[in-house]
Write a sequence for this structure.
C-alpha cells in the first residue's frame, strides 16, 4: 500500500508527490524550464499558423489565412515557373521542323534531352529502357520499320498510335487469322510457315513442301507482305526476309501468327503528351540510329 | 484518502489518475472533441468533394476488377493519389481530385510507392501489355520487382455476388440504380462481348469482345484501363476550384 504524505526530500530539496511505497518516495520534480518554454512556444506557433494559413472551418467555408495560400495555387505556380524555365528551349523546338532540329546541334541536344525523359516515362515499359524492344514490341534502334522510319512516319505513329481504337486516325490493319477462321488447312499452314522461314535462310523443319508453300504465300500473304515477302509499311506488314522478328522465327511462333493473326497495339499520345513533347520524341526516336 | 488538498486546478488531475473509469471518460471526451472539430465540418463544407462532371460508379466488370485489386493487395506497392506537387503532376498528369475516388469503398489512395502511382494509368498501355505485364512483369520491364500474377488469367471470374456487392455499395451512397443492380450480370457479359449497350448505363465503358467469359485478369484490366479517365481535364476549370 502506498501512503500519501507530502514531504520535502532531504537530499534534493524537492517536494515528494506524497506517494510512498515501502519507504520509497516519488519526487515531484518539475519539468525542466527549457522544455516547458519550448512547449509554450509551440502552442504560440500553432496559433500563428492558424492566422497565416487556412485552418478553421467556419460557416460557409473556412478561414483562408493571411495570404490565401492553397496547395492548388502553389502547384500551379510551381508548374508555371518550370514552364518559364523551359520556355526558351520549348519555343525553339516549336518554331523549328524536325529536320531543322536535327541539323542544329544545340536544338538536337534540347530535343533529345526532353524526348529522352518522356521516353523513359511513357515508352520504356513497352519498348525497353534502351528502345531495344521486347517480344511483340519493336526495337526502335534498328532500321527495320513496320510503319516507316521517316520522321513524319514516326510522328504519325506516336500521335495516333497503332490499332488504337480510341483514335480515329490510328494506324490500322491486322493480319487475318488463317487457321482460326479456317482459310488455310493444317498442312497448308505447315508449308507456308516453312516457306516463310526459308525467306530468311532458316532450315525447313518437318519436311514441308516449299513449292506449295510459295504458292500459298502468293495467294494469301503477298497482298500484305509483298510478292517477295519484303513487307508493306502502309499496312504495317513486316518484312519477312530479314532476320529481324517482332515475335520470333521459330516454327511454333510463326505458326501461331498464321493461325491466330492479329496485330500489336500502341496507345495514341495526342492529348496525353503536348505537341512539343511529341516532336521531341520524334527526334529522339528518329536519331536513335535507324531513322530514314 | 488524499491528505493533501489540491491547491489549484492544475492539481485536479489526481482525480483522473486515481480512477480509471474517469480517466477513460476523460480520454473519450478529449478525442471526441478533436474528432468533432476536424471531421464534422467536412460534412457541411461545400468544397469537401467538389462535383466534377464525368465521374460515374464502376461498371460491374470494373467493380469485380477493383475487388481483385484489393484482394491481391496491389495498394501495398501502388498509390492512386497524384498529390498537388510539381514533380508528380509532371510525371503522372493532373493531380487527383477527391471526386475521382468518391465511389471507391475502400479508397485506394495508398501511401506506399514501390511501383508507380496508378491514378491515371488508364489508356496509357494496351490490354495486351497489361496481360504480358501481369503474367510476368520481367517480360516487358526487365528490372521490375513486381510479383507475377499468372493465375489471374487462368481463373474464371466469379461474379455471382456482384449484384449483392452493388446493392451494398448503394447503401453507403454509391448511386447504383435498381436497373443497374438487376442487370449486373448481363452487363458483365455485355462488356466482355463487344456489346456497346453497357455504355448506356455506364458512360464511356469500354467493351471488348473476349467471348463473354471473363477471367479475373480481364476484370482487373477493365478496372486499370478506367483509372483516371473519367474527368475530361480539357473541360475541368482549375481556377474555379482553387481552394
Amino acid at each position: 500500500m502506498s501512503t500519501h504524505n507530502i514531504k520535502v526530500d532531504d537530499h534534493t530539496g524537492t517536494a515528494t508527490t506524497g506517494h510512498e511505497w515501502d519507504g520509497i518516495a516519488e519526487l515531484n520534480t518539475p519539468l525542466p524550464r527549457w522544455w516547458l518554454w519550448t512547449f509554450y512556444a509551440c502552442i504560440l506557433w500553432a496559433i500563428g499558423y492558424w492566422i497565416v494559413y487556412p485552418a478553421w472551418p467556419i460557416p460557409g467555408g473556412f478561414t483562408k489565412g493571411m495570404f490565401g495560400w492553397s496547395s492548388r495555387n502553389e502547384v500551379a505556380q510551381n508548374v508555371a515557373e518550370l514552364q518559364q524555365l523551359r520556355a526558351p528551349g520549348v519555343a525553339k523546338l516549336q518554331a523549328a521542323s524536325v529536320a531543322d532540329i536535327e541539323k542544329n546541334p544545340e536544338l538536337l541536344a534540347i530535343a533529345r534531352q526532353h524526348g529522352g525523359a518522356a521516353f523513359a516515362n511513357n515508352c520504356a515499359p513497352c519498348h525497353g529502357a534502351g528502345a531495344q524492344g521486347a517480344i511483340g514490341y519493336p526495337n526502335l534502334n534498328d532500321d527495320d520499320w513496320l510503319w516507316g522510319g521517316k520522321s513524319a512516319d514516326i510522328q504519325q505513329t506516336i500521335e495516333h498510335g497503332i490499332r488504337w481504337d480510341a483514335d480515329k486516325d490510328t494506324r490500322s490493319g491486322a493480319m487475318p487469322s488463317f487457321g482460326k477462321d479456317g482459310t488455310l488447312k493444317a498442312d497448308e499452314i505447315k508449308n507456308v510457315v516453312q516457306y516463310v522461314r526459308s525467306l530468311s535462310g532458316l532450315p525447313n523443319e518437318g519436311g514441308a513442301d516449299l513449292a506449295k508453300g510459295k504458292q500459298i504465300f502468293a495467294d494469301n500473304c503477298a497482298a500484305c507482305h509483298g510478292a517477295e515477302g519484303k513487307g508493306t509499311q502502309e499496312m504495317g506488314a513486316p518484312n519477312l526476309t530479314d532476320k529481324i522478328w517482332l515475335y520470333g522465327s521459330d516454327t511454333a511462333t510463326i505458326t501461331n501468327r498464321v493461325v491466330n493473326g492479329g496485330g500489336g497495339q500502341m496507345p495514341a499520345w495526342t492529348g496525353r503528351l503536348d505537341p512539343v513533347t511529341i516532336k521531341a520524341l520524334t527526334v529522339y526516336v528518329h536519331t536513335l540510329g535507324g531513322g530514314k | 484518502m488524499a491528505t493533501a488538498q489540491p491547491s489549484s486546478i492544475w492539481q485536479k488531475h489526481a482525480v483522473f489518475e486515481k480512477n480509471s473509469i474517469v480517466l477513460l471518460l476523460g480520454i473519450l471526451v478529449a478525442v471526441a472533441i478533436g474528432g468533432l472539430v476536424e471531421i464534422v465540418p467536412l460534412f457541411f463544407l461545400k468544397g469537401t468533394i467538389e462535383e466534377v462532371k464525368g465521374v460515374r460508379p464502376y461498371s460491374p466488370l470494373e467493380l469485380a476488377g477493383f475487388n481483385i485489386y484489393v484482394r491481391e493487395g496491389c495498394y501495398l506497392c501502388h498509390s492512386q493519389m497524384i498529390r498537388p506537387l510539381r514533380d508528380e503532376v509532371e510525371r503522372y498528369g493532373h493531380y487527383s481530385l477527391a471526386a475521382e475516388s468518391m465511389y471507391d469503398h475502400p479508397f485506394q489512395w495508398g501511401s506506399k510507392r514501390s511501383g508507380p502511382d496508378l491514378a491515371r494509368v488508364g489508356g496509357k498501355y494496351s490490354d495486351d501489355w497489361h496481360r504480358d505485364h501481369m503474367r510476368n512483369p520481367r517480360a516487358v520491364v526487365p528490372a521490375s520487382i513486381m510479383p507475377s500474377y499468372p493465375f489471374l488469367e487462368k481463373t474464371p471470374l466469379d461474379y455471382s455476388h456482384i449484384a449483392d456487392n452493388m446493392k451494398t455499395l448503394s447503401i453507403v451512397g454509391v448511386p447504383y440504380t435498381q436497373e443497374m443492380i438487376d442487370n449486373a450480370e448481363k452487363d458483365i457479359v455485355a462488356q466482355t462481348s463487344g456489346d456497346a449497350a453497357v455504355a448506356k448505363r455506364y458512360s464511356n465503358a469500354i467493351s471488348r469482345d473476349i467471348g463473354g467469359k471473363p477471367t479475373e485478369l480481364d476484370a482487373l484490366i477493365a478496372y486499370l484501363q478506367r483509372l483516371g479517365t473519367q474527368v475530361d481535364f480539357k473541360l475541368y476549370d482549375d481556377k474555379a476550384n482553387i481552394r
User: Anything to note?
Assistant: Chain B has a mean pLDDT of 90.
